[in-house]
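Contributing: when you submit paired examples, paste them exactly as shown. First protein:
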Amino acid sequence: MDFEQIYHFIFETYAGMGILIGASLIICIIIAAILEIRTRKLYKDRGEKKESDEWSLFDDDDDDEDDDDDDEDDQDDEAEAKKD
């Protein structure tokens, strides 16, 4: 196979483009894994974890939410109902 046939296969056929995208994805995953391992080796000790300061996607605490806006809307609705 010469260079022209390889170029045609990789860039001008569906199978070649799939191989190109798949190879790029695998290379990126390998690079990310290597960099993650190197970072973990560099920053081994992070100290004690403070659970109260951690942010969580599934945080069930309602302390941070401000419900004052809802109360004002309820009062406005009640005032309008009394006018009618």
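Second protein:
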Amino acid sequence: MNFIAPGHESLPDPDFGPEQMRAWLSALPQHDATAAAAALIERMVAFNRADLQPRAHLRTLEMLRDHVEGLVPLLEHRLAKPAPPLAGPMRQIAHLIEKLFKELAAGYTRAVLSVPRSWLSLGYRAQLHTPLVRAMDYHARRLSLAHRLYARSPGAVWAELHRLFLLARGWRVAAERIESPRRSPLDVYRTALLLAFAQPSRLTCDEHERLQDYLARYADLAEIVPPATVTDPACVFAIDPHRDRPGVAYAKRHDAEFENGALLLKTARLVERIDVQLRRLRKGISAASLGLPDEASSLAYQEMLQRLRGHWRGDRAARSARTRFHPRVNAWVGLRDIWRALRAELPRDGVQEAGAGRAVDARDRVDRAERELARLRAAPHVRRGAAGRSGRARRDQAARPRFNLRVPGTLGAVEQSRASGGRAPATCAGRRPGGVQAL
């Protein structure tokens, strides 16, 4: 590639020159991807701190990128459909992949931002277009990896994406695609925003792959425009480039204010396309004729599209009454205290629910259960039966009380019996207005 001509402000570093780096990369272990990734990360950290000429920096960075792109599929193969929480070895592999993306993004970002402004006026912007797109692409891949593993977004990633996209708009190359991969700064930025607004933490691994495929097909229907007067808050998201976050939906915050340079993401056309696709899929039209994969005919895919429609409209999530209710629960330890509590509670619940007659029946059942429990405890031991189980084991099983453990949704005050001394397993019994909830 014909990158920027070398300058006179720095001297070539013999440790990170293209020839030295090529020899070092060829000596990496070929059959141990984890060890190769760890060594490569350590080398890239030192490389990003070195002071190199711009052309040598970009040439070496391209060599590192080619090696990383061949190494990452070997590592990601071990993370196929991970089940959280990740185990120790899986977490180490995820950390290595994220660190590789981070160092490549840092190297390309430095190559773009460290160029003197006087060089930009001489026509070198076109040569910085490719490093700019690749820096944004690796930042977006870090976010996608965090979403897929149900982890928090890495710090300062959104701030860097906002900064690089504004730089691309200032250079007037935001919509221009590079040769490999065929993506533009606008494509990378828009896809990352749509993925963030789709609530990826609520998606399964299969749904995350379906979402990535859907965005590759229809992400260009969303628009990023300068700030303007918003009449309808639906399908509009406010983006503040000065914050390390993707943005906020207008429908969720009507008081969203802008600073200088703020942007708007409009998803009306994308939501309309989802509506048309859902309506035709329910009529039995084939998914291939609608530009969707074959699995779009399944109910799971259509349910995902329905949820994406609500997320990309920016609809407010309806809160249920349960989230605003804080019941109180009493807990007893030991069977004797539990039976005493049930004997005291059941008559009142019976009177409230079915009258005095049912309360008397409940009291009689409790009395019979207590007498049966006392009789079985006093029964003598018998010989082992033909089934191979002792009489004491059968007597203990018959003496074990059977009842449903019921607690409200939120635990409150807890009381522990002093007589049991904590030896018996803890069992909770609670009540709240309108019935109880099974645990």
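If you have annotations for the second protein, write them as plain sentences, like these:
Strands lie at 223-225, 236-239, 248-249, 263-266, 330-333, 426-429.
The longest helix spans residues 88-113.
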